[in-house]
Design brief:
- The complex is a heterodimer of chains A (about 525) and B (about 375).
- Chain A has about 525 residues and is α/β, with parallel strands linked by helices.
- Chain A is built from 17 helices and twelve strands.
- A seven-stranded mixed beta sheet of chain A has the order 1-7-6-5-4-2-3, with helices on both faces. In chain A, strands 10-11-12 form a three-stranded antiparallel beta sheet, with no helix packed on it.
- In chain A, α5 packs parallel to α12, α6 packs across α7 and α12 packs across α15.
- The longest helix of chain A has about 35 residues.
- Chain B has a nine-stranded mixed beta sheet with strand order 10-9-8-11-13-15-16-14-12. In chain B, strands 3-2-1-4-5 form a five-stranded parallel beta sheet, sandwiched between helices.
- In chain B, about 35% of the residues lie in helices and about 25% in strands.
- Chain B has two domains: about 200 residues, Rossmann fold, CATH 3.40.50; about 160 residues.
- The chains are: A alpha/beta (about 525), B alpha/beta (about 375).
- The interface between A and B is large, with 40 and 37 residues.
- β3 of chain A pairs parallel with β16 of chain B, so a sheet runs across the interface.
Chain lengths: ~525, ~375
């Protein structure tokens, strides 16, 4: 059937002011009546009970609006966003935007979960601790690792936990000063460089070879007695799986270094390949991505960090353990790196992820990987022939996995329309802006797409048809595409340089007033 | 205020190329080219670039030189130009280009668009240096200078952004000086001539890309901090800082009066020699621990042999190949599009010893492992 490219799409565009600009002095949401005299006398000075340290010196600068206007304001803004499960999120390459079952939302809405607090006595949260424990068992099986923690609040955080573990390992051996370098690759997620740098290591980055795979000769030149570890993502964000990853591990182990596997792109290999068999000492998962919980709006997220028995002594505490009768929180690990975050992890994400995994089953996980890879290769094949479009390392002899990094470089040369322009135009078709690439942009004019397992053939066909249409538009009338979006809520920046200028950009109203001198 | 665009066309640029002469410098070469049937290339490219400005033609003040140096091309592209100066029609010279650039600077144009090759870029550079923004439309035989857009149309696109006030950043781009006679004999002997200030569409000119890149300024500071930290740990070591903007950033951060185009010597974080030649370097590094710090010069990825011939095979032998430190921003490496770094010291054995995988310092405690070839 012909792909359904949305016609006459129109998104609300409210040009909504900042809420401070809607402020009307004297407006209130609720007018609290003055208590009667007798009541005031009996109560006395109720504010006197507030600890000094919590008392404000000045009134907070809150905008003054009625309830109705607050409600209308946020409803307007909500109409201008494309949230989860509302649009064709094939756009979000590397984010793995799969469907989030509504039934799991019922679970977290249930007061039996919602009214729990992690500071409660262990005896009163046995059910939740059991879920943590069981899910850890599943993750151990999927990764082949010996121990798991869910304490990190997201993927980057789990990678930082790994860097902290590496640091603790070498510190215990008394070799931290010498082992001060961590190797990564330029197509790994930038956090594989940033987290080690934050943990105090020097970062050595490898460039790919002609095939687009990290250059193994470069690795041989990079390792030394200074190598603390290698931090690498595989398959990388360009969608290519390094078939020699086990050799990489051998080379790093050969100089005594540790090996960390960034498995953000796990959708490609669930039930197919494991970190353990490749020889890694540590790995992580983006629980919110791979295991089907809502994300893409800055959380909530969760990072599962996994390691071998030898490294488990460094894991953050408390650890969730089972003694045969009860579930306990155990913080008695003297070599632990301490806490990377409060409590044991984002419980809501763990609950949903556990439910999702139990629903899928082991077979379902394998099916996820199969369909993700098939979907992606189907889409890649359908993109053939779209004018101005190519993809990174075409013809390198390695099949793409679950995502592809395309490039609009030819389109830019032919028409002057580049990836930013195409990206602005795609919103006019009711589709979320796509993910271009992490920085630096090694592949020029990038576009990274990931049709994971919950997208149908129709979804993929629609996406390809829209891309083809925008390409045609660019060749026919480049200035029209360059002026997009026309019917979506998003806007183009009026002052491109402002976001780079610390004298101009502001993330709070107060900062904005200060910088504009108002 | 109406935006002002300055335009200079070198009508002879590119004429040597098609007929196999490796350049168009000098009356004699032009005569030979014409005799061989060469036709002017630059005017057509100028028109192509101007056409990319599209409907902006009516809202922009185009200021240029007479006849084939810009006036004719501007009219053909739909502009009504303001014409300055005077020329001998059909017999324009490099001096005309220099004079035109100076006149356009006086006219306070917002952007000086010039159409030509390396020679034209050199003339513009001599006249205005980095005093006002400039951008090259490629039309010459030798385009080794990084001041050129990839195509006439991309030059026009970028010019349009500048005139619309949508370019916030400018960067220094190298103007190379290739010895034309040597070039004809198959040898590339390049000298770093100077720099022009070109608009950065949030990225590099030669690859006019979309998207936001980290500002080069932050990267340069980080690189400088890395090298300076090295220096602070070895105050007796002599650092031989080669030419280029990245090494200049180190010199600036140190607060010394280093040169942009020359080799400077630093010891104990102080300048002990400015714009030195090979002989000086050899004398100063006798029995003294030293490090040669080089960066990528020009678009082809040379770290030795283009603009830093003072760092000769003799110097490298004395200092030791193991004491070579390569610094460059990530963006410069990425712009190589996977092509290796290149060396051309003049001595094959030295070149061979420099080949292989090297670490490039791209930030503070941040290095990239990259291939070097000969």
């Amino acid at each position: 059937m012909t792909a359904r490219v949305r016609k006459d799409y129109q998104q609300a565009r409210w040009n909504e002011p900042i809420i401070y600009e809607l402020s009307l002095p004297g407006s209130r949401g609720v007018l609290v009546p003055e208590p009667e005299h007798d009541v005031q006398e009996a109560a006395g000075d109720v504010l006197a009970r507030l600890p000094e340290g919590l008392r404000r010196k000045e009134l907070p600068n809150l905008p003054e609006l009625s309830q109705k206007h607050v409600l209308a304001h946020y409803l307007h803004l909500s109409q201008e966003t494309l949230g989860s499960n509302i649009t064709n999120d094939i756009s979000e390459g590397t984010c793995t935007m799969k469907y989030n079952p509504r039934v799991n939302e019922m679970l977290v809405a249930d007061p039996h979960f919602g009214e729990l607090h992690p500071d409660q006595d262990e005896d009163t949260v046995q059910g939740m601790l059991e879920i943590y424990h069981r899910f850890a068992g599943i993750i151990r099986e999927i990764s082949g690792m010996d121990e798991v923690t869910f304490q990190p609040g997201g993927g980057n955080h789990a990678v930082y936990t790994a860097a902290s573990v590496v640091r603790a390992y070498w510190m215990l051996k008394g070799q931290l000063e010498q082992r001060n370098e961590i190797i990564t690759t330029i197509f790994s997620h930038p956090c594989d460089a940033a987290a080690p740098a934050t943990a105090g290591f020097k970062v050595i980055t490898l460039y790919p070879d002609k095939q687009g795979v990290p250059d193994i000769e470069a690795l041989k030149a990079a390792v030394s007695e200074h190598t603390a570890a290698i931090f690498m993502t595989n398959p990388e964000d360009i969608g290519i799986y390094n078939p020699r990853v086990d050799e990489f591990v051998k080379i790093v182990h050969g100089v005594g270094g540790l090996c960390f596997y960034d498995q953000a792109n796990a959708n490609a290999f669930l039930g197919v390949a494991r970190a353990r068999e490749a020889g890694f000492d540590m790995c992580h998962f983006n629980v919110h991505k791979t295991f089907g919980t809502p994300h893409g709006g800055e959380g909530p997220a969760n990072g599962a960090f996994c390691c071998t028995q030898e490294l488990s002594q460094f894991l953050p505490v408390p650890r969730v353990e089972y003694d045969g009768k009860k579930y306990r929180l155990n913080a008695d690990y003297p070599n632990s790196i301490g806490k990377v975050r409060d409590f044991m992890g984002t419980a809501g994400v763990i609950l949903r992820a556990y439910a999702w995994t139990m629903m899928m089953g082991a077979d379902g996980l394998r099916e996820t990987a199969d369909i993700s890879v098939i979907n992606n290769n189907y889409m890649l094949a359908k993109m053939e022939g779209i004018r101005g479009l190519d993809y990174a390392f075409r013809g390198n002899g390695i099949r793409r996995q679950e995502q592809v990094r395309y490039t609009w470089e030819q389109l830019k040369q032919d028409t002057g329309v580049g990836t930013d322009d195409v990206n602005n135009r795609i919103a006019d078709y009711g589709i979320e802006h796509y993910w271009t690439s992490h920085h630096p942009w090694v592949i020029p004019e990038p576009m990274t797409l990931e049709p994971c397992e919950t997208y149908s053939v129709d979804d993929i066909d629609e996406y390809v048809a829209v891309i083809r249409q925008i390409s045609d538009e660019a060749y026919r009338d480049p200035s029209f595409v360059k002026a997009a979006p026309h019917v979506s809520a998003s806007h183009r920046r009026s002052d491109d340089a402002a976001l780079d200028d610390p004298h101009k950009w502001a993330v709070t109203w107060r900062a904005h007033l200060k910088k504009t001198g108002r | 205020m109406t935006a002002k665009l300055g335009l200079i066309v070198n009508p002879f640029a590119g004429m040597g190329g098609r007929v196999g002469l490796k350049g168009s410098d000098g009356k004699e070469t032009i005569r030979r080219a014409i005799a061989l049937g060469a036709r002017p290339e630059a005017p057509g490219r100028a028109v192509e670039a101007l056409r990319a400005l599209g409907d902006l033609a009516s809202g922009v003040d185009l200021v240029t030189y007479p006849y084939e140096m810009g006036e004719e091309e501007a009219r053909q592209a739909g502009f009504s130009p303001t014409v300055l100066g005077s020329i001998a029609r059909g017999e324009t010279t490099p001096e005309d280009t220099e004079r035109a650039a100076r006149d356009l600077r006086e006219a306070q144009v917002d952007l000086l668009l010039f159409v030509g090759g390396d020679g034209t870029a050199r003339n513009v550079c001599s006249a205005i240096g980095r005093e006002l923004p400039a951008l090259g439309v490629p039309a010459g035989v030798k385009i080794h200078s990084a001041v050129y857009a990839t195509t006439p149309r991309s030059a026009g696109d970028l010019a349009r952004l500048v005139l619309e006030g949508r370019v916030g950043r400018y960067q220094d781009a190298e103007v190379m000086d290739i010895d034309e006679d040597a070039f004809r004999q198959g040898r590339v002997s390049a000298r770093l001539y100077g720099y022009l200030k070109v608009p950065a569409d949030q990225a590099h000119v030669q690859n006019m890309k979309s998207g936001r890149a980290q500002g080069d300024e932050a990267a340069l500071v980080a690189i400088a901090e890395h090298v300076i930290e090295d220096m602070e740990g070895q105050m007796e070591r002599l650092y031989i800082l080669g030419p280029g903007t990245t090494t200049k950033a180190i010199k600036d951060r140190l607060g010394i009066a280093g040169t942009l185009l020359g080799v400077d010597l630093v010891q104990g974080k102080r300048l002990v020699g400015a714009d030195v030649g090979e002989r000086d370097i050899l004398a100063r590094t006798q029995g003294v621990p030293a490090t040669v710090v080089v960066t990528i010069i020009g678009g082809q990825g040379y770290i030795f042999g283009r603009g830093n011939q003072q760092l000769s095979p003799g110097v490298l032998a004395q200092v030791g190949i193991g004491n070579v430190l390569v610094v460059a921003t990530r963006q410069k490496v990425i712009d190589l599009r996977g092509a290796p770094l290149l060396v051309d010291t003049g001595d094959p054995a030295t070149d061979q010893s420099l080949r292989g995988y090297r670490r490039i310092v791209t930030g503070y405690h941040d290095t990239l492992v990259y291939r070097v070839d000969g």
